[in-house]
Design a protein that fits this description.
Layout (H helix, E strand, L loop, with lengths): L1 H16 L7 H17 L4 H15 L2 H5 L3 H16 L17 E7 L5 H14 L5 E5 L5 H14 L2 E2 L8 H14 L4 E5 L8 H14 L3 E7 L4 H13 L4 E5 L8 H10 L3 E5 L7 E3 L2 H9 L4 H11 L2 H12 L5 H14 L2 H7 L4 H9 L4 H12 L3 H5 L6 H11 L3 H23 L3 H8 L1
Parallel strand pairs: 1-4, 1-5, 2-3, 2-4, 5-6, 6-7
Antiparallel strand pairs: 7-8
Helix pairs in contact: 1-2, 1-12, 2-3, 3-5, 5-12, 6-7, 8-9, 10-11, 14-22, 15-18, 18-20, 20-21
Bound molecules: guanosine-5'-diphosphate (GDP).
The site of guanosine-5'-diphosphate has 18 residues, from helix 6.
Length: 447
């Protein structure tokens, strides 16, 4: 995805940082030089890059970091925080604002092909489902009849109503009819999908501005294609200057390798990124969480929120014991089982894994195995069907025992094998991390 590609670049930077005792000023400068290159390669605009690196230097160079016994962790946190700031701060994930008198008008704007119509359908589905809103969709695209039909189809899929098409009406007339209909039939939300153009032009801007003036939308959401990188930033700037936007939806984050657009668009417009489009299907709409995204951009996993959430849920003493065992390379299946339990408390396993540093590759393998709560429970069951000896030394488990364990836990031998393989991967990863001198990082992360 967008963020993983950027993340893997930055991971290299931090790999090199690990294993040094304390960070000197020169270390910070070295790191920042590489951070800057990584961000530029990821298509972050130069002024944004300068801003972030300046902030990081300011915070990193100084007593706190140099005296710290956990330099890697410090730098991760400082860069992370700077990225979060650049993405709009911790509280940015507010989603669509519906706090207005019904019907709440939402105006969708953007270039043709950006995913505007699809996103309108996605938002309609989300508001109907999650928020239990009565949603009316209306296409104002009188230039392309196909666009109106497309929205009609999407409305049907999202099980919301679309405004009947009346040929010959202007966008303004359609918008007004939509609002009248919504008032008369007590709709909660009206989503107005405006016409796109292949490029920014005055006619498009005037049309959108006229609709905006008449309808006074509560949200004006700009839809931009993340794949277009720097162009997306220019589009955002133009729409914001000429029409004014209250939020940005970035689409195609599923297929793109440039994470920088998110940082730049936020910086250039000041408008928050509210949602991400991550696929063609109507449910492929994600909330935008700056702290999560920053963690993914860093490729270090979201250590910060892992620390925060772990502190709330993990039993301190157990965590310390676990961390000590991990460091000594004594991580056993018993530890794994108790970790599974903690993970169960914290949310999804794949979400949790995404937050562990260095586990990106393993995570994608695990996701291939369709990892979820059911599997998590099953894994716990498999482990509890083993003898204590086996849990401490899984190498003892031969084929006949695997069959017994599978039968005892209501699973298949493949599932037992998969668990053992996963466990082994995890143990290998921990060994590698210890070798890289990351002890401080892990200890700090879990304790
Ligand atoms: P519009 O011209 O801006 O209304 O764009 P459309 O909504 O018609 O989308 C154009 C194409 O992009 C369609 O084929 C969509 O299925 C596809 N699309 C929209 N959003 C996403 C997304 O988040 N990810 C991917 N992979 N495709 C998307």
């Amino acid at each position: 995805t967008v963020f993983e590609a950027l993340g893997s670049k930055l991971q290299g930077v931090f790999d090199r940082l690990r294993g040094r005792g304390a960070l000197s000023e020169a270390d910070v400068n070295d790191a920042l030089r590489e951070v800057r290159v990584a961000l530029l390669e990821a298509d972050v605009a130069l002024p944004v890059v300068k801003d972030i690196t300046a902030k990081v230097r300011e915070r990193a160079v100084g007593q706190e970091v140099i005296r710290s016994i956990q330099p890697g962790q410090m730098v991760v946190k400082i860069v992370h925080d700077a990225l979060v700031d650049a993405l709009g701060g911790k509280d940015a994930a507010k989603g669509i604002d519906l706090a207005a008198a019904s019907p709440v008008p939402i105006l969708m704007v953007g270039l043709q092909g950006s995913g505007k119509t699809t996103t309108s359908g996605k938002i309609a589905l989300r508001l109907r489902g999650r928020e239990r809103k009565k949603v009316l969709l209306a296409s104002l695209d009188v230039h392309r009849p196909a666009a109106q039909l497309q929205l009609e189809t999407l409305a049907r899929q999202a099980e919301v109503t679309s405004l009947p098409i009346i040929a010959g009406q202007t966008p303004l007339q359609i918008a007004q009819r939509a609002m009248e209909t919504a008032r008369g039939e007590l709709y909660d939300v009206v989503i107005l999908d405006t016409a796109g153009r292949l490029a920014i032009d005055d006619a498009l801007m005037d049309e959108v501005a006229a609709v905006k003036a008449a309808v006074k939308p509560h949200e004006t959401l700009l839809v931009v294609d993340a794949m277009t990188g720097q162009d997306a930033v220019n589009t955002a700037r133009a729409f914001n200057e000429k029409v004014g936007v209250t939020g940005i939806v970035m689409t195609r984050v599923d297929g793109d390798a440039r994470g920088g657009a998110a940082l730049s668009m936020r910086a250039v417009t000041g408008a928050p990124i509210k949602l991400l489009g991550a696929g063609e299907k109507l449910d492929a709409l994600e909330d935008f969480h700056p702290d999560r995204i920053a963690g993914r951009i860093l490729g270090m996993g979201d250590i910060v929120s892992l620390v925060e959430r772990a502190a709330e849920t993990i039993d301190q003493a157990e965590a310390e014991k676990l961390a000590a065992r991990m460091q000594k390379g004594q991580f056993s299946l018993e530890d794994y089982a108790s970790q599974l339990k903690q993970i169960g408390k914290m949310g999804s396993l794949s979400g949790m894994l995404g937050m562990l540093p260095g586990i990106g590759k393993l995570k994608s393998q695990l996701e291939g195995a369709n990892l979820d709560q059911t599997i998590l429970k099953k894994q716990a069951a498999i482990i509890s069907s083993m003898t204590v000896k086996e849990r401490r030394n899984p190498d003892l488990i031969k084929a006949s025992r695997k069959r017994r364990i599978a039968a005892g836990s209501g699973s298949s031998v493949q599932e037992v094998n998969r668990l053992l393989k996963q466990f082994e991967d995890m143990r290998d990863m921990m060994k590698r991390m210890n070798k890289m001198g990351q002890k401080g990082l892990m200890r700090g992360g879990l304790a």
